[in-house]
Design goal:
The complex is a heterotrimer of chains A (377), B (73) and C (339). In chain A, 38% of the residues lie in helices and 16% in strands. Chain A has helices at 11-26, 40-48, 74-84, 107-112, 124-132, 149-161, 176-185, 198-204, 207-216, 227-242, 262-271, 301-305, 320-324, 348-351, 356-364, 366-369; strands at residues 33-37, 59-63, 89-94, 117-120, 137-142, 167-171, 193-197, 220-223, 248-250, 272-279, 283-292. The longest helix of chain A is centred in the first third of the chain and has 16 residues, at 11-26. With 73 residues, chain B is of the alpha+beta class. Helix content of chain B is 16%, strand content 42%. Chain B has one helix at 58-69, and strands spanning 5-13, 16-21, 24-29, 41-45, 48-52. Chain B has a 5-stranded antiparallel β-sheet, with no helix packed on it. Chain C is of the alpha+beta class and 339 residues long. Chain C folds into 2 domains: 33-153, 60s Ribosomal Protein L30, Chain: A (2-Layer Sandwich); 161-326, Alpha-Beta Complex (Phosphoribosyl-aminoimidazole Synthetase, Chain A, domain 2). Chain C has helices at 17-31, 72-85, 106-123, 178-184, 204-212, 227-239, 254-263, 285-294; strands spanning 43-45, 52-60, 66-67, 70-71, 90-101, 126-135, 143-153, 169-172, 192-194, 219-221, 242-246, 277-280, 302-308, 315-318, 324-326. In chain C, the strands form 3 sheets. A 7-stranded mixed β-sheet of chain C has the order 10-12-8-13-11-14-15. A 5-stranded mixed β-sheet of chain C has the order 1-2-7-5-6, with helices on one face. Chain C is globular, with a radius of gyration of 19 Å. The chains are: A alpha/beta (377), B alpha+beta (73), C alpha+beta (339). Chains in contact: A-B, A-C, B-C. At the A-C interface, helix 1, helix 2, helix 4, strand 4 and helix 15 of A face helix 1, strand 14 and strand 15 of C. Strand 3 of chain B pairs antiparallel with strand 9 (192-194) of chain C, so a sheet runs across the interface.
């Protein structure tokens, strides 16, 4: 195998991997094996390739809180919207956040009502805007996990070094390992194995998972995103589980060195400090978020505009929290498909392109839709 | 989460440059990495190269699978 | 009321379910006649003459106005001509209405007009009437163009979205996603360089050849905004059939796939402006494919799926690795994402 991307999608390889998985999982007979992935891109990849439809019935793939958009509290969106209502302010955001429901509106609706809100592919667009339009106050909505936060850190430093006094960041970055501990230590869901987020791991390396595996006895595999990656990782986990080995393996070795990216980690430490953080649906997890250090407070939107980020209101019927913790699967939420669907989403799990509910609705509702009556009857 | 695409480094100008993924060229910022050279592969996320990408590690993948299948460690 | 906000959103123009809700809730009940109801690309008027007439209208608001492979002028004529062709009509006459922003360069207007003429000649239609308005600076984004078109349906075939039959082959005339990526590569905030050209082209000549070859075409749709996914879902719903696609058979250029990978988009949801989706009985698929591949606008034609009697009203796809997934109707337009 020469390592071309097509190789990682080769059906001959995936066929063989599936046979191996059926062998190993089948040998556990009727015992349910629950594997959790905590990365929205994994949620998407699994759904997009129809992997669930190919796994043995006793092997469950749970979707955890791996989508930074899904776990951003409604109050963050509310604050972003209220900043955007200032006629001097240009809000710049990743596309992922545009339709996420706040307490009673969204950035998309605010934009329609006249707010200057722009979608960026990269945080460097905010630098460009701030330089070219010095009369505008540019606020970048800084969300993401460790894959994204180093880039945000660099951009913040640039803002300071370039003396762009009109550029600030509304930070709600989060850290994955504390969330993993919260999930593993809870009694609600039995997790037999963890598919670790491949790209977050390019930054943090494997050390955080070593601790997790030791403390909770859960094998971890750092998994890539192509079908071969996912299936090989699932196979690896099943073998570790069968042999009772709580070890950490890197399947995604072409991208993830054990030490991660020390330069990025150092930059993170210089720009941000850990703080308690509210995760939508999960509550507050200690030291699970990043705050901008005081030395850079001139570019901290909370300081610049004198705002705080409230928790905001979730729809009381919304069960996103239970979905995010793997307690229920999306179709088990009473709002799923009826009140909550991509056209009228209630919670973030349905709005975000890689939220578990959106992925389920878009890709997995096969049995429901298989009928020979129209409109899913 | 996180879309990151393995792309080849085509141009380097200080800390910035251009990378290519199967025919599409994109601006990339290399500030998060050291020693990036032309012809290297990097993972591109939101306009930043966040890690080096080593396609020859594919051999290790097959080795890993072989070991897993044989029940060895 | 399913419309979730009290204001119009960008998504309402995206060709997906948001737009459909808007049309069904506000326009259809207001106008309510047998010609509008089918909501096809063109209205078919059968009460005037012996041959049926097709009548369509479109507005063009593309940004940027000049993109790799074309411009708003070429887009305007092609779009209207294609809507007529999708009804099986021979396009004849086109109207041209322009709303121009104060300050717009005359030179650009000349270029656009020349483009319109070229494309009209290529499609063998005449621009027979027009209107010009100028609005104050800021009230329009350069120029907006609205075209209406009339064509004559000479075939006996009933070609419409509700005519798909169990077992029909689903065929496209070439690569999907070119136009959307070509346009997006020039948008602000996205710094990527692509060689991809828009596929914008009038398809009336190609459709005429298909009709002349006596192939029993059931459905023709052009997958514009919302991409092939939107068009196929519309067909599945109208015809109350299921459609099964095969991922490995869908033609997408590597450069389009890679641009989509980077931006987090799915080529099935990206706009096309020189493509058609044709459904015909399986027995005639080979004949149709051969005909398409001989034509300059059909060289990369492929059978991408079939109509089934399961999953009624839905589009599903057999993935590259043999799994199954749903190809859902898009909500609005796809936005670049980081996750």
């Amino acid at each position: 195998m020469k390592g071309r991307i097509e190789d990682y999608r080769d059906p001959r390889l995936t066929d063989q991997l599936l046979r191996d998985i059926h062998d190993v999982a089948g040998s556990a007979s009727s015992r349910t094996i629950s594997l959790m992935e905590v990365c929205g891109t994994h949620t998407m990849a699994i759904a997009r390739y129809g992997i669930r439809s190919l796994l043995p019935d006793n092997l469950k793939l749970l979707s955890g809180p791996g989508c930074p958009v899904c776990v951003t509290p409604a109050g963050y969106v509310d604050t972003a919207i209220s900043l955007s209502r200032n006629p001097d302010v240009t809000v710049v955001t990743f596309g992922d956040l545009m339709r996420v429901p706040g307490s009673d509106s969204s950035l998309a609706v605010a934009k329609a009502a006249g707010a200057d809100i722009r979608v960026a592919y990269s945080p460097s667009y905010a630098l460009e805007l701030a330089r070219n339009q010095p009369e505008r106050k540019v606020v970048f909505l800084a969300i993401g996990f460790e894959t994204t936060s180093p880039s945000l850190a660099w951009t913040l430093v640039q803002a300071k070094e370039s003396r762009l006094s009109n550029l600030s960041f509304l930070c709600a970055c989060k850290l994955i390992p504390p969330a993993l501990h919260a999930l593993a230590s809870s009694d609600e869901v039995k997790i037999d194995g963890l598919l670790c987020p491949g790209h977050v791991s390019t930054i943090i390396g494997t050390a955080p998972y070593e601790q997790l595996a030791r403390q909770y006895g859960i094998p971890c595999v750092v998994a890539g995103f192509e079908p071969v990656d996912v299936l090989l990782s699932v196979l690896l986990l099943c073998r570790r589980i069968a042999r009772g080995e709580a070890k950490v393996d890197i399947e995604y070795s072409r991208s993830v060195p054990k030490e991660g990216n020390p330069k990025a980690l150092k930059l993170l430490g210089q720009v941000f400090e850990p703080a308690d953080s509210a995760w939508r649906g999960l509550g507050t997890i200690p030291d699970s978020g990043l705050e901008i250090r005081s030395g850079l407070s001139d570019h901290d939107a909370k300081t610049v505009f004198g705002v705080d980020i409230p928790l905001g209101k979730d729809n009381p019927a919304c069960r996103c929290g239970d979905v995010l913790r793997g307690v229920i699967s999306p179709p088990e939420c009473p709002l799923f498909r009826t009140a909550c669907n991509p056209l009228t989403p209630v919670g973030a799990c349905m709005v975000s392109g890689e939220g578990a509910c959106a992925a389920f609705y878009k890709y997995c509702e096969l049995e429901h839709k298989k009928g020979t009556q129209p409109h899913g009857n | 989460m996180c879309l990151a695409i393995p792309s080849e480094v085509l141009e380097i100008h200080g800390d910035e440059g251009t990378v290519e993924w199967q025919g599409t060229k994109v601006y990339a910022n290399f500030s998060l990495l050291d020693n990036v050279s032309l012809g290297d592969y990097v993972l591109l996320h939101a306009g930043f190269a966040i890690q080096k990408y080593q396609p020859e590690e594919a051999e290790e993948l097959m080795e890993l699978w072989r070991k897993v299948s044989e029940g060895a460690d | 009321m399913a419309i979730e906000s009290d204001r119009i959103l960008i998504a309402h123009g995206g060709g997906g379910s948001a737009m459909h809700e808007l049309v069904r809730e506000i326009f259809v009940p207001t106008f309510n006649n047998q010609f509008l109801e089918p909501l096809q690309d063109s209205a078919v008027i059968d009460e005037l003459a012996e041959d049926r007439l097709a009548f369509t209208t479109d507005a063009y608001v593309v940004r940027p106005l000049f993109f790799p492979g074309g411009d708003i002028g070429r887009l305007a004529v092609s779009g209207t001509v294609n809507d007529l062709a999708m009804a099986g009509a021979r396009p004849l006459y086109v109207s041209l209405s322009v709303i121009i922003e104060e300050g717009f360069p005359v030179e650009q207007l000349r270029t656009i007009a020349a483009s319109i003429k070229d494309t009209a000649d290529q499609a063998r239609v005449k621009v027979v009437t027009g209107d010009t308005k100028v609005v104050e600076k800021g009230a329009a984004d350069g120029i907006f163009i609205t075209t209406s078109g009339i064509g004559i349906i000479e075939t006996e075939l009933e070609i419409a979205s509700d005519r798909a039959d169990d077992g029909d082959a689903v065929i496209v005339n070439g690569y999907l996603g070119d136009h959307g990526i070509a346009v997006m590569s020039k948008r602000e905030g996205i710094n990527f360089k692509s060689e991809v050209q828009s596929d914008v082209a009038p398809l009336s000549g190609l459709v005429q050849e298909i009709l002349d070859a006596d192939i029993d075409i059931h459905v023709l749709r052009d997958p514009t905004r919302g991409g092939a996914a939107a068009a196929l879902n519309e067909i599945a719903e109208s015809s109350e059939v299921g459609i099964r696609l095969h991922a490995a058979k869908i033609p997408v250029r590597p450069e389009v796939r890679s641009a989509c990978d980077i931006l987090g988009l799915d080529p099935l949801y990206v706009a096309n402006e020189g493509k058609l989706i044709a459904l015909c009985p399986l027995g005639q698929a080979r004949k149709l494919l051969t005909l398409l591949r001989k034509h300059p606008l059909g060289k990369s034609a492929a059978i991408i799926g079939e109509v089934t009697s399961e999953w009624l009203g839905n589009v599903i796809m057999e993935t590259e690795i043999g799994g199954t997934r749903i190809v859902e109707m898009p909500y609005g337009e796809q936005l670049p994402r980081i996750c």
